[in-house]
Amino acid sequence: MDYSIHDALRAGFDKLVFVIRRGFAETFRSQIGGRYQGHAAVDYAYQEMDVFTGGYAAPAERQKPWGTGHAILSASRAIAEPFAVINADDYYGPHSFATMRASSPRPRTCHPARYAMVGYRLRNTLSANGTVSRGICAVDARGKLLGVAEHTKIAARGAVVEALDAAGRSVELTGEESCP
Description:
- With 180 residues, this protein is α+β, with helices and mostly antiparallel strands.
- It is 19% helix and 26% strand.
């Protein structure tokens, strides 16, 4: 996360919104968030299991937050400008932040119909230490995103990449697919 934040600040992003669990807030603010005071505007949002769920109740045994889309909704009160989303446990590299910053509309105001996403070649995101889950992007000839289909248990088997689709069916991929 520190490397990605460093790259984002160098690319011109000037605000950080950390989406965290409320019970972890004080520890996070003191040990992590405080390091960025003076380098960027810092805000916090809390991802609550029962907010933005349309009345759907989480199973009692679920402890993990809902995911990236839910995190963005949870941060919506703190976002009034173009923004980029990262996961703290992934490294994106400086080029990704420069690309996202360059795609931001000017002046720095949100435009409801303008979105961009940095995609990575699936083969370059696989692990030698087990399977991964990824969204596989469908794009048109101009690179416009048409949809993202979640795949799990993705692993390279020689020249072929095997995965399970959202229905749990085994599928074969090329590894050249784009994923966020």
